[in-house]
Amino acid sequence: MPLETPTRIVRELARHGYNAEREAVTLIAGAADPETTLARAIEHAGADAFRVTAADVRAVLDSGPNATDAPVSASSTAATPSDTTTAEADALSDSESASTDRSLDPSSSTGETKAETTTSSQSSPPETGGSNSSSGRQSDPSLRSLSITNDMTGQSTGTGEYGDFVKVFKDRYEKLSRQLRGRVNHRPAEAIQSMPGGSDAAMVGLVNDIRSTASGHWLIELEDTTGTFPCLVMKDRKFASAVDELLMDECIAVEGTLADDSGIMFVDSMHWPDVPRTHKPNTADRHVQAALISDVHVGSQEFMAGAWHRFADWLHTDAAEHVEYILIAGDMVEGVGVYPNQDEELDIVDIYDQYEQFSEYLKEVPGDIEIVMIPGNHDAVRLAEPQPGFDEELRDIMSVHDARITSNPSTVTVEDVNVLMYHGVSLDEVIAELPSESASYDEPHKAMYQLLKKRHVAPQYGGHTRLAPEEQDYLVMEEVPDIFHTGHVHKLGWGKYHNVLAVNSGCWQAQTDFQKSVNIDPDAGYAPIVDLDTLDMTVRKFS
Ligand code: D5M
Ligand code: FE
Ligand code: ZN
Protein backbone atom coordinates (compact mmCIF):
# COMPACT_ATOMS: atom_id res chain seq x y z
CA MET A 1 0.00 0.00 0.00
CA PRO A 2 1.67 3.25 -1.03
CA LEU A 3 1.76 5.74 1.82
CA GLU A 4 1.09 8.84 -0.19
CA THR A 5 -1.30 10.48 2.24
CA PRO A 6 -1.18 11.24 5.96
CA THR A 7 -4.45 9.36 6.38
CA ARG A 8 -2.86 6.23 5.04
CA ILE A 9 0.13 6.70 7.28
CA VAL A 10 -2.11 7.11 10.33
CA ARG A 11 -4.06 4.05 9.28
CA GLU A 12 -0.95 2.00 8.67
CA LEU A 13 0.37 2.95 12.10
CA ALA A 14 -3.00 2.12 13.64
CA ARG A 15 -2.84 -1.27 11.96
CA HIS A 16 0.36 -1.90 13.86
CA GLY A 17 -1.29 -0.72 17.08
CA TYR A 18 0.25 2.76 17.26
CA ASN A 19 -1.01 6.31 17.42
CA ALA A 20 1.16 8.95 15.88
CA GLU A 21 2.15 12.44 16.76
CA ARG A 22 0.97 14.72 14.02
CA GLU A 23 4.51 15.85 13.37
CA ALA A 24 5.64 12.24 13.06
CA VAL A 25 3.08 11.72 10.30
CA THR A 26 4.28 14.85 8.54
CA LEU A 27 7.87 13.67 8.71
CA ILE A 28 7.02 10.21 7.39
CA ALA A 29 4.95 11.68 4.56
CA GLY A 30 7.87 13.88 3.58
CA ALA A 31 10.48 11.13 3.66
CA ALA A 32 12.00 9.88 0.43
CA ASP A 33 10.81 6.38 1.27
CA PRO A 34 7.75 6.62 3.55
CA GLU A 35 7.24 2.83 3.79
CA THR A 36 10.71 2.12 5.09
CA THR A 37 10.69 5.18 7.32
CA LEU A 38 7.40 4.10 8.88
CA ALA A 39 8.62 0.55 9.47
CA ARG A 40 11.84 1.76 11.04
CA ALA A 41 10.07 4.39 13.14
CA ILE A 42 7.83 1.66 14.56
CA GLU A 43 10.88 -0.37 15.37
CA HIS A 44 12.46 2.64 17.01
CA ALA A 45 9.34 3.35 19.10
CA GLY A 46 9.40 -0.22 20.42
CA ALA A 47 6.64 -2.61 21.42
CA ASP A 48 5.85 -0.79 24.70
CA ALA A 49 5.04 2.52 23.07
CA PHE A 50 1.47 3.57 22.24
CA ARG A 51 2.57 6.02 19.66
CA VAL A 52 5.24 6.89 17.21
CA THR A 53 6.72 10.31 17.99
CA ALA A 54 8.47 12.86 15.82
CA ALA A 55 11.62 12.00 17.76
CA ASP A 56 11.34 8.38 16.60
CA VAL A 57 11.03 9.45 12.99
CA ARG A 58 13.86 11.95 13.28
CA ALA A 59 16.13 9.30 14.78
CA VAL A 60 15.38 7.06 11.82
CA LEU A 61 15.86 9.82 9.27
CA ASP A 62 19.07 11.03 10.87
CA SER A 63 20.54 7.59 10.76
CA GLY A 64 19.94 7.55 6.96
CA PRO A 65 19.87 6.20 4.34
CA ASN A 66 16.59 7.89 3.39
CA ALA A 67 16.79 11.63 4.00
CA THR A 68 13.65 13.78 4.14
CA ASP A 69 12.42 16.18 1.54
CA ALA A 70 10.57 19.29 2.58
CA PRO A 71 7.79 18.35 5.05
CA VAL A 72 4.25 18.38 3.70
CA SER A 73 1.14 19.49 5.51
CA ALA A 74 -0.42 16.68 7.50
CA SER A 75 -3.89 18.02 7.69
CA SER A 76 -5.15 18.98 4.28
CA THR A 77 -4.57 16.04 2.00
CA ALA A 78 -7.58 13.97 1.05
CA ALA A 79 -7.50 10.20 1.23
CA THR A 80 -7.69 8.21 -1.94
CA PRO A 81 -10.20 5.33 -2.08
CA SER A 82 -8.84 2.42 -0.20
CA ASP A 83 -7.57 -0.84 -1.43
CA THR A 84 -7.99 -3.78 0.90
CA THR A 85 -5.31 -3.88 3.53
CA THR A 86 -4.58 -6.83 5.74
CA ALA A 87 -6.34 -5.07 8.62
CA GLU A 88 -9.38 -4.59 6.49
CA ALA A 89 -9.34 -8.22 5.46
CA ASP A 90 -9.13 -9.24 9.11
CA ALA A 91 -11.95 -6.94 10.06
CA LEU A 92 -13.99 -8.28 7.19
CA SER A 93 -14.09 -11.69 8.75
CA ASP A 94 -15.34 -10.04 11.96
CA SER A 95 -18.09 -8.29 10.09
CA GLU A 96 -19.16 -11.50 8.46
CA SER A 97 -19.44 -13.28 11.75
CA ALA A 98 -21.24 -10.32 13.29
CA SER A 99 -23.72 -10.22 10.46
CA THR A 100 -25.02 -13.64 11.29
CA ASP A 101 -26.00 -12.52 14.78
CA ARG A 102 -28.11 -9.64 13.68
CA SER A 103 -31.24 -11.37 12.50
CA LEU A 104 -32.90 -10.70 15.84
CA ASP A 105 -36.40 -9.47 16.27
CA PRO A 106 -36.02 -5.69 16.32
CA SER A 107 -39.48 -5.09 17.72
CA SER A 108 -39.08 -5.57 21.44
CA SER A 109 -38.76 -2.42 23.45
CA THR A 110 -35.97 -1.63 25.83
CA GLY A 111 -35.77 -0.22 29.28
CA GLU A 112 -38.19 0.36 32.04
CA THR A 113 -38.89 4.03 32.25
CA LYS A 114 -40.52 6.39 29.83
CA ALA A 115 -38.91 8.13 26.90
CA GLU A 116 -39.52 11.83 26.40
CA THR A 117 -39.15 13.66 23.18
CA THR A 118 -37.53 17.03 23.15
CA THR A 119 -38.26 19.17 20.19
CA SER A 120 -36.18 22.25 20.25
CA SER A 121 -37.57 25.40 18.72
CA GLN A 122 -34.10 26.59 17.85
CA SER A 123 -32.94 25.10 14.62
CA SER A 124 -29.64 26.92 14.34
CA PRO A 125 -26.73 25.87 16.50
CA PRO A 126 -26.02 28.06 19.50
CA GLU A 127 -22.93 30.18 19.32
CA THR A 128 -19.86 28.26 20.24
CA GLY A 129 -17.28 29.05 22.88
CA GLY A 130 -16.14 26.98 25.82
CA SER A 131 -17.31 29.33 28.53
CA ASN A 132 -20.95 29.76 27.53
CA SER A 133 -23.17 29.07 30.48
CA SER A 134 -26.51 30.47 29.52
CA SER A 135 -28.66 27.83 31.20
CA GLY A 136 -30.49 28.13 34.45
CA ARG A 137 -27.84 25.95 36.07
CA GLN A 138 -27.71 27.57 39.48
CA SER A 139 -25.78 25.13 41.51
CA ASP A 140 -22.58 26.23 43.08
CA PRO A 141 -19.77 24.35 41.33
CA SER A 142 -18.13 23.90 44.72
CA LEU A 143 -20.96 21.47 45.57
CA ARG A 144 -19.78 19.17 42.83
CA SER A 145 -17.79 16.09 43.48
CA LEU A 146 -16.11 14.03 40.83
CA SER A 147 -13.25 11.60 41.18
CA ILE A 148 -11.80 8.81 39.12
CA THR A 149 -10.37 5.52 40.27
CA ASN A 150 -8.86 2.74 38.23
CA ASP A 151 -7.44 5.04 35.54
CA MET A 152 -4.59 3.04 34.03
CA THR A 153 -3.40 5.79 31.69
CA GLY A 154 0.38 5.84 31.87
CA GLN A 155 0.43 2.68 33.98
CA SER A 156 0.74 0.16 31.20
CA THR A 157 3.58 -2.26 31.81
CA GLY A 158 2.60 -5.11 29.51
CA THR A 159 5.01 -6.16 26.81
CA GLY A 160 2.88 -8.97 25.39
CA GLU A 161 5.30 -11.57 26.74
CA TYR A 162 4.03 -14.91 27.99
CA GLY A 163 4.80 -13.90 31.58
CA ASP A 164 2.37 -10.98 31.35
CA PHE A 165 -0.47 -13.31 30.42
CA VAL A 166 0.32 -15.47 33.41
CA LYS A 167 0.30 -12.40 35.67
CA VAL A 168 -2.95 -10.94 34.42
CA PHE A 169 -4.83 -14.25 34.72
CA LYS A 170 -3.36 -14.86 38.16
CA ASP A 171 -4.57 -11.45 39.23
CA ARG A 172 -8.00 -12.10 37.74
CA TYR A 173 -8.18 -15.39 39.61
CA GLU A 174 -7.12 -13.79 42.89
CA LYS A 175 -9.58 -10.93 42.67
CA LEU A 176 -12.56 -12.98 41.56
CA SER A 177 -11.93 -16.03 43.71
CA ARG A 178 -11.99 -13.65 46.70
CA GLN A 179 -15.63 -12.95 45.81
CA LEU A 180 -16.44 -16.66 45.88
CA ARG A 181 -14.29 -17.88 48.73
CA GLY A 182 -16.81 -17.28 51.49
CA ARG A 183 -19.50 -19.19 49.64
CA VAL A 184 -17.79 -22.51 48.89
CA ASN A 185 -15.26 -24.58 50.76
CA HIS A 186 -12.97 -24.91 47.76
CA ARG A 187 -9.69 -26.76 47.30
CA PRO A 188 -6.95 -26.28 44.71
CA ALA A 189 -7.15 -28.48 41.59
CA GLU A 190 -4.01 -30.27 42.67
CA ALA A 191 -5.49 -31.21 46.06
CA ILE A 192 -8.79 -32.34 44.54
CA GLN A 193 -6.92 -34.82 42.32
CA SER A 194 -5.62 -36.62 45.40
CA MET A 195 -8.87 -36.64 47.42
CA PRO A 196 -10.51 -40.06 47.93
CA GLY A 197 -13.07 -41.11 45.30
CA GLY A 198 -16.66 -40.18 46.18
CA SER A 199 -15.66 -37.17 48.36
CA ASP A 200 -17.57 -33.91 48.36
CA ALA A 201 -15.43 -31.26 46.70
CA ALA A 202 -15.54 -27.65 45.55
CA MET A 203 -13.32 -25.66 43.27
CA VAL A 204 -12.94 -22.06 42.12
CA GLY A 205 -11.43 -21.67 38.68
CA LEU A 206 -11.34 -19.89 35.37
CA VAL A 207 -13.27 -21.66 32.61
CA ASN A 208 -10.60 -23.26 30.45
CA ASP A 209 -12.78 -25.40 28.20
CA ILE A 210 -16.46 -26.22 27.70
CA ARG A 211 -17.45 -29.31 25.71
CA SER A 212 -20.63 -31.23 25.31
CA THR A 213 -20.29 -34.98 25.70
CA ALA A 214 -21.69 -37.60 23.33
CA SER A 215 -24.70 -38.02 25.61
CA GLY A 216 -25.41 -34.28 25.83
CA HIS A 217 -23.89 -33.50 29.21
CA TRP A 218 -21.43 -30.64 29.73
CA LEU A 219 -17.79 -31.06 30.57
CA ILE A 220 -16.28 -27.87 31.99
CA GLU A 221 -12.59 -27.72 32.64
CA LEU A 222 -11.70 -25.29 35.41
CA GLU A 223 -8.22 -23.92 35.98
CA ASP A 224 -6.66 -22.44 39.10
CA THR A 225 -3.06 -21.61 39.95
CA THR A 226 -2.24 -25.28 40.61
CA GLY A 227 -3.74 -26.99 37.58
CA THR A 228 -6.99 -27.92 35.89
CA PHE A 229 -9.87 -30.20 36.86
CA PRO A 230 -12.78 -31.54 34.76
CA CYS A 231 -16.29 -30.89 36.09
CA LEU A 232 -19.36 -32.57 34.63
CA VAL A 233 -22.76 -30.86 34.55
CA MET A 234 -25.47 -33.42 33.76
CA LYS A 235 -27.96 -32.20 31.18
CA ASP A 236 -30.99 -32.84 33.39
CA ARG A 237 -29.75 -30.62 36.25
CA LYS A 238 -31.79 -27.49 36.86
CA PHE A 239 -28.75 -25.27 36.41
CA ALA A 240 -27.58 -26.95 33.17
CA SER A 241 -28.98 -24.06 31.13
CA ALA A 242 -26.55 -21.74 32.91
CA VAL A 243 -23.75 -23.49 31.04
CA ASP A 244 -25.03 -21.76 27.88
CA GLU A 245 -24.23 -18.46 29.53
CA LEU A 246 -20.62 -19.33 30.34
CA LEU A 247 -17.80 -17.55 28.55
CA MET A 248 -14.25 -18.80 28.33
CA ASP A 249 -11.91 -17.42 31.02
CA GLU A 250 -14.63 -16.26 33.37
CA CYS A 251 -14.30 -17.24 37.02
CA ILE A 252 -16.86 -19.55 38.65
CA ALA A 253 -17.13 -21.91 41.61
CA VAL A 254 -18.58 -25.41 41.55
CA GLU A 255 -19.53 -27.85 44.29
CA GLY A 256 -20.11 -31.54 43.74
CA THR A 257 -18.99 -35.11 44.31
CA LEU A 258 -15.88 -36.78 42.96
CA ALA A 259 -16.14 -39.90 40.80
CA ASP A 260 -14.84 -43.18 42.26
CA ASP A 261 -11.44 -42.66 40.65
CA SER A 262 -11.37 -38.92 41.60
CA GLY A 263 -10.80 -38.10 37.94
CA ILE A 264 -13.88 -35.91 37.52
CA MET A 265 -16.36 -33.93 39.64
CA PHE A 266 -20.14 -34.34 39.23
CA VAL A 267 -21.40 -30.81 39.75
CA ASP A 268 -24.29 -30.15 42.18
CA SER A 269 -24.17 -26.36 42.16
CA MET A 270 -22.53 -23.48 40.33
CA HIS A 271 -21.74 -20.01 41.67
CA TRP A 272 -20.74 -16.67 40.12
CA PRO A 273 -18.85 -13.75 41.66
CA ASP A 274 -22.01 -11.71 40.96
CA VAL A 275 -23.47 -8.60 42.54
CA PRO A 276 -25.06 -9.34 45.93
CA ARG A 277 -28.84 -9.03 45.75
CA THR A 278 -28.59 -6.85 48.81
CA HIS A 279 -26.43 -4.27 47.02
CA LYS A 280 -27.52 -0.85 48.19
CA PRO A 281 -26.44 1.76 45.68
CA ASN A 282 -24.95 5.07 46.75
CA THR A 283 -26.91 8.13 45.76
CA ALA A 284 -26.30 11.88 45.61
CA ASP A 285 -27.53 13.92 48.53
CA ARG A 286 -28.99 16.63 46.32
CA HIS A 287 -31.01 16.65 43.11
CA VAL A 288 -28.44 16.50 40.35
CA GLN A 289 -28.42 14.72 36.99
CA ALA A 290 -25.91 13.19 34.61
CA ALA A 291 -26.33 12.64 30.88
CA LEU A 292 -24.85 9.30 29.84
CA ILE A 293 -23.94 9.25 26.19
CA SER A 294 -21.48 7.52 23.87
CA ASP A 295 -20.59 6.86 20.24
CA VAL A 296 -20.64 10.39 18.90
CA HIS A 297 -18.69 9.38 15.76
CA VAL A 298 -17.79 12.88 14.59
CA GLY A 299 -16.14 12.64 11.18
CA SER A 300 -18.63 10.10 9.86
CA GLN A 301 -21.01 11.23 7.13
CA GLU A 302 -23.73 9.77 9.34
CA PHE A 303 -22.86 11.87 12.40
CA MET A 304 -26.18 13.53 13.35
CA ALA A 305 -25.14 17.14 13.73
CA GLY A 306 -28.76 18.31 13.97
CA ALA A 307 -29.55 15.98 16.86
CA TRP A 308 -26.35 17.05 18.60
CA HIS A 309 -27.23 20.75 18.21
CA ARG A 310 -30.68 20.09 19.67
CA PHE A 311 -29.13 18.21 22.58
CA ALA A 312 -26.67 21.05 23.21
CA ASP A 313 -29.47 23.64 22.89
CA TRP A 314 -31.57 21.72 25.37
CA LEU A 315 -28.69 21.69 27.85
CA HIS A 316 -28.90 25.50 27.84
CA THR A 317 -32.56 25.46 28.87
CA ASP A 318 -34.08 25.47 32.34
CA ALA A 319 -35.36 21.94 31.79
CA ALA A 320 -31.73 20.81 31.90
CA GLU A 321 -30.70 22.93 34.87
CA HIS A 322 -29.91 19.86 36.97
CA VAL A 323 -27.71 18.22 34.35
CA GLU A 324 -24.28 18.97 35.76
CA TYR A 325 -22.35 16.07 34.27
CA ILE A 326 -21.96 14.43 30.88
CA LEU A 327 -20.26 11.05 30.77
CA ILE A 328 -19.14 9.92 27.31
CA ALA A 329 -18.36 6.20 27.00
CA GLY A 330 -16.13 6.17 23.92
CA ASP A 331 -16.11 6.58 20.12
CA MET A 332 -15.84 10.38 20.19
CA VAL A 333 -14.88 10.29 16.53
CA GLU A 334 -15.34 7.90 13.62
CA GLY A 335 -11.59 7.33 13.33
CA VAL A 336 -9.86 6.00 10.25
CA GLY A 337 -9.30 2.45 9.09
CA VAL A 338 -11.49 0.92 11.80
CA TYR A 339 -13.68 -1.15 9.50
CA PRO A 340 -13.36 -2.14 5.84
CA ASN A 341 -14.38 0.54 3.35
CA GLN A 342 -15.00 2.94 6.21
CA ASP A 343 -13.26 5.76 4.35
CA GLU A 344 -16.07 5.80 1.79
CA GLU A 345 -18.35 7.11 4.54
CA LEU A 346 -15.93 9.58 6.09
CA ASP A 347 -16.80 13.22 6.18
CA ILE A 348 -13.44 14.17 7.71
CA VAL A 349 -10.54 11.99 6.65
CA ASP A 350 -7.84 13.20 9.03
CA ILE A 351 -8.14 11.78 12.51
CA TYR A 352 -6.82 14.96 14.15
CA ASP A 353 -9.28 17.05 12.19
CA GLN A 354 -12.02 14.74 13.47
CA TYR A 355 -10.99 15.52 17.06
CA GLU A 356 -10.80 19.25 16.24
CA GLN A 357 -14.36 19.03 14.96
CA PHE A 358 -15.51 16.98 17.94
CA SER A 359 -14.06 19.70 20.11
CA GLU A 360 -16.17 22.27 18.23
CA TYR A 361 -19.28 20.24 19.06
CA LEU A 362 -18.20 20.04 22.69
CA LYS A 363 -18.06 23.83 22.76
CA GLU A 364 -21.82 23.92 22.22
CA VAL A 365 -22.28 22.26 25.59
CA PRO A 366 -22.66 24.77 28.46
CA GLY A 367 -19.26 25.53 29.92
CA ASP A 368 -20.37 24.79 33.47
CA ILE A 369 -21.09 21.09 32.80
CA GLU A 370 -18.41 18.64 33.89
CA ILE A 371 -17.47 16.15 31.18
CA VAL A 372 -15.79 12.77 31.57
CA MET A 373 -14.60 10.80 28.54
CA ILE A 374 -13.14 7.36 27.93
CA PRO A 375 -11.95 6.06 24.55
CA GLY A 376 -13.64 3.42 22.39
CA ASN A 377 -12.58 1.25 19.48
CA HIS A 378 -12.90 4.10 16.96
CA ASP A 379 -10.66 6.41 18.96
CA ALA A 380 -6.98 7.02 18.40
CA VAL A 381 -5.63 4.97 21.29
CA ARG A 382 -4.51 1.36 21.31
CA LEU A 383 -7.33 -1.04 20.56
CA ALA A 384 -6.43 -3.63 23.18
CA GLU A 385 -8.23 -3.27 26.53
CA PRO A 386 -7.71 -1.71 28.96
CA GLN A 387 -7.34 1.30 26.67
CA PRO A 388 -5.36 4.18 28.17
CA GLY A 389 -6.93 7.65 28.06
CA PHE A 390 -6.13 9.96 25.14
CA ASP A 391 -2.55 11.14 24.73
CA GLU A 392 -1.43 14.73 25.40
CA GLU A 393 -1.90 15.89 21.84
CA LEU A 394 -5.52 14.73 21.70
CA ARG A 395 -6.17 16.07 25.22
CA ASP A 396 -4.89 19.37 23.96
CA ILE A 397 -7.25 19.33 21.01
CA MET A 398 -10.21 18.44 23.26
CA SER A 399 -9.28 20.79 26.10
CA VAL A 400 -12.20 23.21 25.65
CA HIS A 401 -14.18 21.97 28.60
CA ASP A 402 -11.34 20.80 30.74
CA ALA A 403 -12.96 17.40 30.38
CA ARG A 404 -11.65 14.58 32.54
CA ILE A 405 -10.11 11.98 30.33
CA THR A 406 -9.59 8.49 31.68
CA SER A 407 -9.01 4.93 30.56
CA ASN A 408 -11.52 2.40 29.21
CA PRO A 409 -12.74 1.04 31.61
CA SER A 410 -12.70 3.43 34.59
CA THR A 411 -14.78 4.03 37.66
CA VAL A 412 -15.96 7.61 37.98
CA THR A 413 -17.45 8.66 41.30
CA VAL A 414 -19.97 11.42 40.72
CA GLU A 415 -21.59 12.86 43.86
CA ASP A 416 -20.91 9.57 45.70
CA VAL A 417 -22.38 7.46 42.90
CA ASN A 418 -19.87 4.99 41.43
CA VAL A 419 -20.25 4.84 37.68
CA LEU A 420 -18.34 2.12 35.89
CA MET A 421 -17.69 3.40 32.37
CA TYR A 422 -16.73 0.84 29.73
CA HIS A 423 -16.97 1.32 25.98
CA GLY A 424 -18.51 -2.11 25.41
CA VAL A 425 -16.67 -4.04 22.69
CA SER A 426 -17.15 -7.28 24.65
CA LEU A 427 -20.92 -6.84 24.35
CA ASP A 428 -20.68 -7.99 20.72
CA GLU A 429 -19.15 -11.21 21.97
CA VAL A 430 -21.59 -11.71 24.84
CA ILE A 431 -24.45 -11.23 22.40
CA ALA A 432 -22.92 -13.57 19.81
CA GLU A 433 -22.19 -16.37 22.26
CA LEU A 434 -25.09 -16.34 24.67
CA PRO A 435 -28.70 -17.39 24.00
CA SER A 436 -30.79 -14.46 22.78
CA GLU A 437 -32.94 -14.48 25.97
CA SER A 438 -29.79 -13.71 27.93
CA ALA A 439 -28.33 -11.05 25.63
CA SER A 440 -29.34 -9.44 22.37
CA TYR A 441 -28.82 -6.19 20.46
CA ASP A 442 -32.38 -5.20 21.25
CA GLU A 443 -31.79 -5.60 24.96
CA PRO A 444 -28.14 -4.61 25.38
CA HIS A 445 -28.65 -4.03 29.11
CA LYS A 446 -29.19 -7.78 29.52
CA ALA A 447 -25.74 -8.41 28.06
CA MET A 448 -24.49 -5.93 30.66
CA TYR A 449 -26.22 -7.95 33.41
CA GLN A 450 -24.10 -10.91 32.33
CA LEU A 451 -20.93 -8.87 32.73
CA LEU A 452 -22.09 -7.76 36.18
CA LYS A 453 -22.77 -11.37 37.13
CA LYS A 454 -19.28 -12.35 35.96
CA ARG A 455 -17.86 -9.21 37.63
CA HIS A 456 -15.66 -8.62 34.60
CA VAL A 457 -16.15 -6.27 31.65
CA ALA A 458 -14.51 -8.52 29.02
CA PRO A 459 -14.04 -12.07 30.31
CA GLN A 460 -13.15 -13.87 27.13
CA TYR A 461 -9.55 -13.73 25.97
CA GLY A 462 -8.55 -14.35 22.38
CA GLY A 463 -11.90 -13.60 20.77
CA HIS A 464 -13.17 -10.45 19.14
CA THR A 465 -12.27 -8.23 22.08
CA ARG A 466 -8.56 -7.57 22.18
CA LEU A 467 -7.04 -7.67 25.63
CA ALA A 468 -3.64 -6.33 26.62
CA PRO A 469 -1.97 -8.26 29.39
CA GLU A 470 -0.94 -5.97 32.24
CA GLU A 471 0.45 -6.56 35.74
CA GLN A 472 -3.09 -6.61 37.00
CA ASP A 473 -6.49 -7.25 35.48
CA TYR A 474 -8.01 -3.78 35.21
CA LEU A 475 -11.12 -5.30 33.67
CA VAL A 476 -12.29 -7.04 36.86
CA MET A 477 -15.13 -5.30 38.72
CA GLU A 478 -13.61 -5.44 42.17
CA GLU A 479 -16.19 -3.09 43.61
CA VAL A 480 -19.86 -3.26 42.67
CA PRO A 481 -20.73 -0.15 40.66
CA ASP A 482 -23.94 1.79 41.29
CA ILE A 483 -24.28 2.56 37.58
CA PHE A 484 -22.74 0.56 34.75
CA HIS A 485 -22.50 2.67 31.60
CA THR A 486 -21.53 1.25 28.20
CA GLY A 487 -22.04 2.06 24.52
CA HIS A 488 -20.56 0.53 21.38
CA VAL A 489 -23.53 -1.48 20.12
CA HIS A 490 -25.42 1.72 19.22
CA LYS A 491 -28.61 0.47 20.86
CA LEU A 492 -30.35 2.11 23.77
CA GLY A 493 -31.29 -0.15 26.64
CA TRP A 494 -31.37 0.11 30.39
CA GLY A 495 -32.58 -1.67 33.46
CA LYS A 496 -31.62 -2.66 37.00
CA TYR A 497 -29.64 -5.74 37.91
CA HIS A 498 -29.51 -6.39 41.66
CA ASN A 499 -30.06 -2.64 42.13
CA VAL A 500 -27.25 -1.65 39.76
CA LEU A 501 -28.50 0.62 36.97
CA ALA A 502 -27.15 -0.70 33.65
CA VAL A 503 -27.33 1.77 30.77
CA ASN A 504 -26.25 1.25 27.20
CA SER A 505 -26.54 4.66 25.72
CA GLY A 506 -27.21 4.54 21.96
CA CYS A 507 -25.28 6.76 19.55
CA TRP A 508 -25.19 9.97 17.49
CA GLN A 509 -24.56 8.26 14.17
CA ALA A 510 -27.36 7.32 11.79
CA GLN A 511 -27.32 3.90 10.16
CA THR A 512 -24.16 3.27 8.14
CA ASP A 513 -24.08 1.21 4.95
CA PHE A 514 -22.47 -1.61 6.87
CA GLN A 515 -25.18 -1.50 9.53
CA LYS A 516 -27.81 -1.51 6.83
CA SER A 517 -26.24 -4.56 5.23
CA VAL A 518 -26.43 -6.51 8.48
CA ASN A 519 -29.74 -5.12 9.68
CA ILE A 520 -28.51 -3.06 12.63
CA ASP A 521 -31.03 -0.35 13.34
CA PRO A 522 -29.17 2.03 15.65
CA ASP A 523 -30.84 4.11 18.37
CA ALA A 524 -29.38 7.45 17.37
CA GLY A 525 -29.84 10.85 18.95
CA TYR A 526 -31.02 9.91 22.45
CA ALA A 527 -29.63 11.15 25.73
CA PRO A 528 -30.31 9.02 28.80
CA ILE A 529 -30.50 11.34 31.82
CA VAL A 530 -29.99 9.82 35.28
CA ASP A 531 -31.10 11.39 38.55
CA LEU A 532 -28.10 10.79 40.74
CA ASP A 533 -30.18 11.18 43.91
CA THR A 534 -32.59 8.36 43.02
CA LEU A 535 -30.93 6.51 40.08
CA ASP A 536 -34.15 6.99 38.11
CA MET A 537 -33.69 7.47 34.43
CA THR A 538 -35.38 9.43 31.68
CA VAL A 539 -34.48 9.27 28.02
CA ARG A 540 -34.59 12.43 25.89
CA LYS A 541 -34.86 12.10 22.17
CA PHE A 542 -33.21 14.68 19.92
CA SER A 543 -33.34 12.96 16.55
O1 D5M B 1 -19.86 -0.46 16.44
C1 D5M B 1 -21.24 -0.33 16.38
C2 D5M B 1 -21.86 -1.70 16.34
O2 D5M B 1 -21.83 -2.18 15.04
C3 D5M B 1 -21.14 -2.75 17.16
O3 D5M B 1 -22.12 -3.67 17.62
C4 D5M B 1 -20.20 -3.40 16.18
C5 D5M B 1 -20.97 -3.28 14.90
N1 D5M B 1 -20.19 -3.01 13.71
C6 D5M B 1 -20.21 -1.85 13.02
N2 D5M B 1 -19.46 -1.91 11.93
C7 D5M B 1 -18.95 -3.16 11.90
C8 D5M B 1 -18.11 -3.87 11.01
N3 D5M B 1 -17.66 -3.34 9.87
N4 D5M B 1 -17.80 -5.12 11.33
C9 D5M B 1 -18.27 -5.69 12.44
N5 D5M B 1 -19.08 -5.09 13.31
C10 D5M B 1 -19.42 -3.84 13.05
P1 D5M B 1 -18.82 0.73 16.38
O4 D5M B 1 -17.54 0.14 16.83
O5 D5M B 1 -19.29 1.81 17.27
O6 D5M B 1 -18.81 1.16 14.96
FE1 FE C 1 -19.52 3.29 18.21
ZN1 ZN D 1 -17.53 1.10 19.33
UniProtKB/TrEMBL annotation:
One of its GO terms (biological process) is DNA strand elongation involved in DNA replication. GO terms for molecular function: DNA binding; DNA-directed DNA polymerase activity; single-stranded DNA 3'-5' DNA exonuclease activity. Residues 132-159 have a biased composition (Polar residues). Pfam families: DNA_pol_E_B. Residues 67-98, 116-131 have a biased composition (Low complexity). InterPro entries: DNA_pol_a/d/e_bsu (IPR007185), DNA_pol_delta/II_ssu (IPR024826), Metallo-depent_PP-like (IPR029052), Pol2_small_arc (IPR011149). The keyword Nuclease applies. Keywords: DNA replication, DNA-binding, DNA-directed DNA polymerase, Exonuclease, Hydrolase, Multifunctional enzyme, Nuclease, Nucleotidyltransferase, Transferase. It catalyses: Exonucleolytic cleavage in the 3'- to 5'-direction to yield nucleoside 5'-phosphates; DNA(n) + a 2'-deoxyribonucleoside 5'-triphosphate = DNA(n+1) + diphosphate. Residues 291-488 form the DNA polymerase alpha/delta/epsilon subunit B domain. Residues 64-161 are annotated as: Disordered. The keyword Hydrolase applies. GO terms for cellular component: DNA polymerase complex. Its EC number is 2.7.7.7, 3.1.11.1. Transmembrane segments: none annotated. Possesses two activities: a DNA synthesis (polymerase) and an exonucleolytic activity that degrades single-stranded DNA in the 3' to 5' direction. Has a template-primer preference which is characteristic of a replicative DNA polymerase. PANTHER family: DNA POLYMERASE DELTA SUBUNIT 2. Heterodimer of a large subunit and a small subunit. Belongs to the DNA polymerase delta/II small subunit family. This is DNA polymerase II small subunit. It comes from Halogeometricum borinquense.
